[in-house]
Amino acid sequence: MEHKAIAVIMGGGRGTRLYPLTKERCKPAVPLAGKYRLVDIPISNCLNGNINKIFLLTQFNTASLHRHIQETYRFDPFSGGTVDILSAEQTEKGESWYQGTADAVRQNIHHFASEDYDYVVILSGDQLYRMDYQALLDQHMETKADVTVSAIPFPADQVSGLGLMRVNDDLTITEFVEKPTDPEVIDGLAITEAIKNRLKEKSEGKRCLASMGIYVFNRETMIEALDNDMTDFGKEVIPSLLKEHKLSSFIFEGYWEDIGTVKAFFDANLQLADPMPKFNFFSRGRPIYTRARYLPASKINRCSINHVIVGDGCIITDSYLKRCVIGIRSVLREGARLENVIMMGSDFFESSADRKANAEKGIPDIGVGMNCEIKNAIIDKGVRIGDNVRLNPEGKPDGFEKGGLFVRDGILIVTKNTVVPDNTVF
After folding, report:
1. Quick one: 263 and 315 in the same domain?
2. Residue 365 placed within a domain
3. Residue 318 is part of which domain span?
4. Full-model pTM
5. pLDDT per position as a tens digit, 4-44
6. How far apart are CA 337 and CA 371, in angstroms?
7. Cis (ω within 30 of 0) for the bond into 20?
8. What are the pLDDT digits (tens) for 173-193?
């Protein structure tokens, strides 16, 4: 079917649960899988689904995101495609920051007015999944829904913090409850036998349909639904539409991960290094796009490597790596031992003159020095780790912080551009 659709990607709030990775960048700009950014996932899904009018709503620490979008998504003049970043702005109608997902769309709805579209697909900027939006739009049109909510089957004992829906056998949504905690309420929202029979994956236990935060609105329905002061789609807008509008559920059974916390980010990245990861960047026909950097191939000399992703432009020498994601332009020197580590790399190569000047000041080169041992850690971009350093969060309480080193969710984070001197033990 032919769809006239635009996409609106939510850039998220302050990203406090991902802090300190969001200390100097917004959530969609957080690096992923050695060479990508989180925002590349929804944008690639859009482009693979023939949606090339994309609006990205942001408000916090947007500089790196702006650079990435401008340098990555350049369309030819004949396609008509654009990725527009819409930051929170003061207008005659208000001067406030976005108060929630619905408020963010409401504050920018005038920017969409001149676009030729019948449907708007609302997406999150911090989820890892691959979805066919054409199939989503096809079902939305076939069911003649006013709103379609994408849902994923979850075991009933794992739905904490998710919006749940009751769905009839024809996929019509009759009830929507945002983040229920009462076991009886959750039990009452379990999927019916007819819906269970639709699912490809069979399971004996009780499951519920949880909202993925992905919505399709008819144009007029969206304008009507936002003609009020409601601030959030899941908590307010979707439940308010149930009585007078037709809401349908699109059931998605692929891999989906909401990367909202440091642990979720850490686990999702390291899983990509598995031989057969749940999310596969090597999928034929539906690529994940990112910036073309034209970096040289990585050089790996005399190393022991097991379940590791290595980005472009890296130099790794005499090192031991086990279950790691090594980002672009990373340098690991002789004797480095890394286990369960995400290293985001660097934005530039250091020149010999830079290295000499830094050495005179006692500043290590960018990357990991000689004879270092690092476990269970995220090393952000531009970090300089000297020789004979030992980094491990074991025994440190959550929230511990010292000199650019943080412990969150049991994971050590070395924040962006931190200098870790020789012989440091953490």
Report:
1. no
2. yes
3. 299-420
4. 0.94
5. 999 999 987 677 889 999 998 988 999 999 999 999 999 99
6. 7
7. yes
8. 999 998 898 989 999 999 988
